[in-house]
Design goal:
It is a single chain. With 57 residues, this protein is of the alpha+beta class. It has one domain. The chain has one helix and three strands. It has one helix at 31-43; strands spanning 4-10, 13-17, 50-55. Strands 2-1-3 form a three-stranded antiparallel beta sheet. A hairpin with a 2-residue loop joins strand 1 (4-10) and strand 2. The longest helix has 13 residues, at 31-43. It is globular and about 35 Å long.
Length: 57
């Protein structure tokens, strides 16, 4: 089964991957769950960022 992570970008600058509450990279089992987490991050942020859901290989 594939795992997905959310990458965070500010303009053309790569910021990093979304972290969980333990400070580890948040991994999601389903792409749509990762997408919802990315939307919630953007909604709660005042920064001009964009998120990309990527599959771990």
């Amino acid at each position: 089964m594939s795992k997905y992570v959310v990458e965070i970008w500010a303009g053309k600058e790569y910021v990093g991957k979304m972290l969980d509450s333990d400070g580890k990279v948040a991994e999601f089992s389903y792409r749509d769950v990762a997408g919802v987490a990315a939307l919630n991050l953007k909604k709660d942020s005042s920064l001009r960022t964009w998120c990309e859901v990527v599959e771990l290989k």
